[in-house]
Each structure stands twice: as structure tokens, then as C-alpha cells.
Amino acid sequence: MSAISATYIAFLILGIATFAVLKPRKAVAIVYICGLLFLPVSYYPSLPTEISDTATFSSYQIMTSALPADSLINKALIAAITALIGAMIFDHRKLIKFRPTIIDLPMTCWCFWPLIQSFFGDANPAGWISSLYIFSIWGAPWFLGRIYFHERAGRLELADIVVGATLLLLPITLIEGISGQRVYEWIFGIHPFANVGAERYFGYRPLAMFEDGNQYGLWLCCAALLAVWRLKTLSQDDSKLLRTVVAVILCLMAIAAQSVGALMLIFAGMTVLHSERLLSYSRKIALPALIVMSLGLGVYVSGAIPLRSLAKETVVGQITLEALRKSGRNSFSWRISQDQHSILRIQEDLVVGSGHWDWWRELGRRPWGLLLLLVGQFGLIGLVLALGSPFGAILSRSRMNRSRETGKTEPNKPQSSSSSALAFTVIIAVTLIDALMNAFIFLPAVMFSGSLSRHFDIKKSNPLGLQQLP
To answer: What phi and psi values does residue 74 have, to the nearest 5 degrees?
Structure first.
């Protein structure tokens, strides 16, 4: 038995046992978050010895765990399934009482879409397998978020567990940031992204147990934002000093990761959360911003704007490329070129999708962003369904009265800063924007999205078994 198999089995057993000693809500959060943080990524294939640059080669072959591919057993699946099984065994009454609402419809359809899609042609993996996989990676965290973290107390507990568990990465951060060595490879063997983007402006970007260095950087930035935001929600008590120290450490870890794009997004998010005027303005533009983002993605995928030609054949484009090169941000233009190279292939099955995880293989390269990978495999229909529930949850929260969500605040505590829904909304927005350029995302954002949808006990249901949100 390999080290990875033994670790997965041990985690499954210990994770389920956690529910016997902790309250279900806390157990769900700890099991899911710790699984994503500390489990080995997947069963990576051996790379051909004749390939000189194995890191570059594997970058095109290894897929994100957010979508089904040729390798279906990974940390994201084990973490989600363990949390779900534990809840089903130790808290089945709560799960049985749950009733879906209309906001769950897009997520449910997203889980079934690969199966439906397979009726239009062949699929790889098979449609029913992809549906089960998407339910595990997307559906299970969404519904666990809906059931256990729909109230403010639940979201605060989930945020604290993300912050506390991420802090445990500090020893690995110090080792890898200074030496460039990979703890993952010491324990579990080859990691195909071990050296991709490892050298930074100063030292090295750690990898820890993540799928990719960019995912590590994004996770650290999200955890730092939650830690800083939690300081604003506390009354003056003894834990203030400890939480301040934790927030400072996580901010330093995020900065040391040197993921510039993630740092910029999180800085913008922190600015919004700590500004009354920006908070008020962000609520007003929530719907227009989502519409503009959706239209922009559609235009980007359609290829209506020839970004490659504009970059190479116009003065502005050449100046921009030169500025990126001088700033050391060549990766940004490289990722756009990867996307543009795949646009024509995506357009062949734009609406329904190809149904194949490796639809990009004939191109010799793949897009680097999750959203384009999703469209290539599952089409615009899949994209709309995948993003429908998170978008719906954000919009439903943006329409609610802020006082109803935050409840009664402590003295001298800014009410706007205590909004857990707003903090989670910022994390989700950052994850979606980052997904334009990165395939390896902040996976807890799916559970965060589910938590934004208010939970209702249904006394009278409609014929479809769906309840309309007020």
C-alpha cells in the first residue's frame, strides 16, 4: 500500500471518528478544511524520463481537482466525502430534515449535467462518473454549507477553523520559503508542480500540500483576510491579543507567498470590508458587477476581442507586454496566450461542451484558468449551472437588510464589519475572479457559497418540492 493510500484511509477513519467527539457542525468544518490543507493531492503518474522539463510537461497534463479528469481520487474528494459520511452517520436527523429551496436548483442541475450531457455524445470520464464526482467536489460542500453554516454563528466558527488550521502551515512555510525544498516530496513522492513558479522575488513560494503554488498563495490570502476581519467582530476581551498575533502571522505568510494577483484581490477585499462607503456602494453594484463579469467572460470565450493580435500588433499592447516583462509578471501574459490558443477549440462545442476532460490535448497545451477549462468540458450550460448557485446566494444576501443578518452587535463594534455574509461574499468574489487565470482554486468557497443561502424549515412545499426564497 502506498503512502498516499494509507493516508487517505487513515483520514477517512479518523475523520469519521471526529464526529463521535465533536459537535457535528464543528466536525464538518474541521474534517473538510483539514482534509483540503493536509492530505496529499492525488496519485500523480510517473513522468517520462525523456522529457527534460518535467515541470512544464506536467503542467499541461495534470488537471485541477475541481473538475473530473482521468484521476478521480484526490484530496478534495476524500475531504468532502469524509465530512458527508460523518454527518450522515452521526447527525442524520438534521440532514433528513433539510429541504431544498429554489436556490439549490442550479447546483443540483450542475451535479446532473455531465450525465445529461453524455446523452449528446461520448464522454470521458463517463457521464454518471463525472456527475458523482461533481456532487462530491461541489454538491456535498454546498449542501453541508447550507445545512450547518447558514447562521452567523456557524459562519464565524467556519472562518475560525480556516484561520486556525492555516496557521499550522507555518513550519512548512518557513522550511520551504527559505530553502525551496518540498515537504510534500519528502513524504509522498513526486509533485508535478513542485518547481512551477517556485522562485519568487525573494526566496521561494511554499507549496505545502497544495495542488499548485498559486493555490497556496490564494489560500493564505483568504485566510489572512478572514483573520483580519475577525478582529473587527470581537469585543474587547482576552482573545483580542491572540487573534491579533494570528492575523499578523497569516498576513506575513500571505505576503511571503508573493502571489501578486491574489494579494491585490485580497487587499481590495479588505478595503471594501473596512470602508462604510465602499460597503454601501458594493451592495448597489453587486448585480451589475455580476452581469458585467458574465458578459465579459462570454466575450472572452467567444474570441470577439483578438487579445493576442492587440498585444502583438498595437503600440499599447507592446508597451503593456514590455511593462509586464520588466515587472517580472510574464506569467500574466503567458496565461492569456494559453487561453487565446484554445478559444477556437472551445467554440466547436461552446454550448454543450465536449464532454472530455482532455479536450485541449490536440492543441498541445491547455488553458490555465478554471472557467475556460470548465467551458471546454461542459460548455456554457455547465458554466451557468456551476456559477448559478454562488451568484444566486450572493444576490439574495445583497438584498437582505444588513441588520437582519448581523443581528445585535457589541458596543463600539462597527455593525458593517461584523457581517459574516459580506466577508464570505468577498472571498467568493476573489475566488471567481482568480479562477479566470488559475485552475487551482480556493475550494472552501463552495461551502462558503452554500452558507450564504438562508435555511428554512418547510411546512408546505410546492409540487416540485422547492421553496421560494422571500
So the answer is: -155, 180
Phi, psi of 263 (to 5 degrees): -60, -40
Cell triple for 238? 482576552
- 113, with CB counted inside 10 A (0-12, 13-18, 19+), is buried
In the chain, what are the helix, strand and coil shares in percent, each to the nearest 5?
70, 0, 30
Q: Note whether 222 and 266 are within 8 A (CB).
A: yes
| Contacts (Cβ under 8 Å, ≥6 apart) of 355 | 114, 117, 118, 120, 121, 122, 123, 124, 127, 349, 377, 378
Distances (CA, A) of 189 to 87, 181, 185, 288: 32, 13, 4, 47
Instruction: Enter the pTM of the model.
Output: 0.86
pLDDT per residue over 333-374, tens digit each?
Answer: 666 666 777 888 888 888 999 999 999 888 877 888 898 899
Q: How many other CB atoms are there within 10 angstroms of residue 185's CB atom?
A: 12
Distances (CA, A) of 195 to 10, 39, 205, 238: 29, 20, 9, 42
State the DSSP code for 149: S
What whole-number distance in Å separates Cα of residue 117 and Cα of residue 353?
A: 8
Cα–Cα distances (Å) from 121 to 196, 229, 354, 381, 398, in that order, read 36, 48, 8, 15, 40
Instruction: List the one residue out of 329, 288, 160 whose CA is nearest residue 231.
Output: 160
User: Could you tell me which of 163, 183, 161 has the C-alpha nearest to residue 172?
Assistant: 183
- Which single residue is written with the C-alpha cell 444588513? 402
What's the burial of 358, exposed, middle or buried (CB within 10 Å: 0-12/13-18/19+)? middle
Decide which of 201 and 429 is more confident: 429
Q: Which residue has the cell 466525502?
A: 81
**Closest of 248, 273, 257, 258 to residue 429, by C-alpha:** 273
d(CA 58, CA 48): 10
Burial class (CB in 10 A: 0-12, 13-18, 19+), 38: middle
Tell me which residue of 455, 435, 454 sits closest to 445, measured CA to CA: 435
